Amino acid sequence: MMPFNTSDWLKCPELKVLPPDLKGLWMDLLCYMWESVERGVMVKPNGTIYSHEEIVRLVGTDAAGSDTWLDRLIFGGVCSEREDGAIYCRRMVKDAEISRKRREAGLKGGSATKSKVFAQKPPESKEKPKEPVLFPQPDSEPTTPPPLTPEQQAKAEKAKKYKYADNVTLKRDEYAKLCEQHGEEAAKRMIEILNLYKGSSGKRYKSDYMTILNWVVDRYYEEIKKYGTERKAILNDNRGCSENNQRQPERAIQTDPGANGSGEAQASKDYSERF
Predict the structure, then answer these.
(1) Strands 161-163 and 169-171: what pairing?
(2) Do 160 and 265 fall into the same domain?
(3) Which pLDDT tens digit goes with each residue over 154-170?
(4) Is residue 262 scored above 60 in pLDDT?
(5) Domain end call among 69, 94, 119
(6) From 51, 152, 226, 229, which residue has the greatest number of CB atoms within 10 Å?
(7) Among the three residues 78, 94, 110, which one is the final residue of a domain in this structure?
(8) Which of 86, 114, 89, 108 is nearest to 28 (CA)?
(9) Nearest-angstrom CA–CA distance, 211 and 158
(10) Which domain holds residue 17?
């Protein structure tokens, strides 16, 4: 696309004196100069110049008068002729030369900047950079952990589990709840049922207490209902004592009232002492 300065066209004194037909031919000639291989000069694609006759045949016929329209443009100062005979537009050639210089300056500056950025590589350091320490460790680790607070000790003691059978572990409060809800003899039997099952099957549970509540309690009551009435009577008696807050765990197994002194005390020792 050729830029066109309307102000220069309307104010140019050389153009004002020309007739309209010559102005139209000059505009056509400007278009050919813009498309030329040498911007602003009437040059053929192979690099040779156009003669006057070739330009007249290419652009248009002669205007009024014996002189050709091209000669009138040259003599009127609208276009110029070089020493080699090439016809050119002074303004178009000047603008093309300015564009060329600006383009070369831009390429030169870009090349200099690129060479500064990419040509010189920073010298490689002989020392390897230290890796960042994500989790720094203290200089000396304590040989013994800090003592627990009374609250921490109480919490740890409460969460501690004890071995009530070879394969059953319970917290103290869990065993106490079983004794309170079902009686001590029932709690022992439930622990025994779970111990035998885990020992024979090899299964392990996250909480033996929850396992007892889940199915061992039902298994125990089915056993009492099917096989033992005497054990069931003792169980009911213990449960009634727990409801009235008068049950004494150490007397869960009744002794013979006719037994003597120390022998009676030794016989009345409950099996629950192991627990």
Answers:
(1) antiparallel
(2) yes
(3) 788 788 888 889 999 99
(4) no
(5) 94
(6) 51
(7) 94
(8) 89
(9) 19
(10) 6-94
- Separation of alpha carbons 264 and 266, rounded Å: 5
Amino acid 270: pLDDT? 47
SS3 state at 153: helix
* DSSP state for residue 12 in the 8-state scheme: -
Asked whether residue 211 is domain-assigned, the answer is yes
- Give dist(CA 26, CA 76) in Å, integer: 12
Is residue 85 domain-resident?
yes
Secondary structure E strands in the chain: 80-81, 87-88, 161-163, 169-171
Instruction: Give SS3 for 252.
Output: coil
**Residues 6 or more apart whose Cβ sits within 8 Å of residue 235:** 182, 183, 185, 186, 224
Q: Which amino acid is at 69?
A: W
Number of domains in the chain: 2
Closest to 198 measured CA to CA, from 167, 169, 171 = 167
Does some domain include residue 257?
Answer: yes
CA angle, corner 198, sides to 193 and 201, nearest 5?
A: 120
Beta-bridge partner residues of 87: 81
Phi and psi dihedrals of 140, rounded to 5? -135, 125
- SS3 assignment, position 51: coil
